[in-house]
Each structure stands twice: as structure tokens, then as C-alpha cells.
Amino acid sequence: MNRSDRLQPISKIRKQQERNAGRLHGESIRQTELQKKQLNELIDYRDQYSETFKLAGESGLSAIQLLEYRLFISRLDDAIIQQKQHVVNGETRCDASQKEWMQKRNSRKMIDKVVENRQQAEHDEREKREQKEMEDRPYGVPYLR
Predict the structure, then answer these.
(1) What does the domain layout of the chain look like in residue ranges?
(2) What would the pLDDT profile of 74-124 be if each residue is shown by its tens digit?
(3) CATH for 3-119?
(4) CB 130, CB 68: distance < 8 Å
């Protein structure tokens, strides 16, 4: 077994680790985008509800209705604050998963480079050996293995 062949299982493992890290990073990105979308929907809903509240206030509201509107808007604001924190947490996870993926990628590249260098060295050694065998043969006599 060649030296480069002994590294193939390690190379295969590193490639799988890189793929897994890339898949996790992609999922992290999708989750963060979903969190951002939900945040935007909450903000839009609050803005629409505030506009409805404003229009209803112009036509007159009872004290109870006014209190209910304000309470609901307050709850929407709380939900928006929570959702913003979810987005921040998601972005932090995205950064961490990207860093992990890049580390796995660099590790895989280093192993692949070592394998490539060893394969090249083995190829060069084989060519030198064959060249030496050709030079050692008497001229015109075929070499039989």
C-alpha cells in the first residue's frame, strides 16, 4: 500500500465533515432568514394595527377599546423585541457555523494537498525507477518482467 493510499480514509472523512458542516451552515442561514421574515411580518402587522388604531381613534373609541388596542400593540412590541433577539441569535449561529465550515474546508484542503504531494512523489519515484531500469538494460534487449 502506498503512503498516499493510507491517507485516503482520512481524506474521505474530512470531505464528509466538510459536507456536514456546509449543510449545517446552509440550514443555519435558512433558519435565520426565516426569523428575519417573521420579524418583518410582525413589524408590518404592528404598523397596520397601529394605523387601524389611529383611524379608529379618530372616529371615537371607548376607554376599554383604547386600553385593549394599547395592550395589544404593547404585546406586539414585546413579540418584536423577542423576534429581534431570535434574529441576533441566528446571525451568531450563522457566523459560528460558517467559521466551523471554513475550518473543516481548510482541514480537508490540507489533507488533499498532502495526498496530492505524496502521489506526485510516488509518481516521480516510479518514473525514476523505470528510467533507471531502462538505462540498466542492454541496448536492444527487451526487458521481461
Answers:
(1) 3-119
(2) 999 999 999 999 999 999 999 999 999 999 999 999 999 999 999 999 999
(3) 1.10.287.1700
(4) no
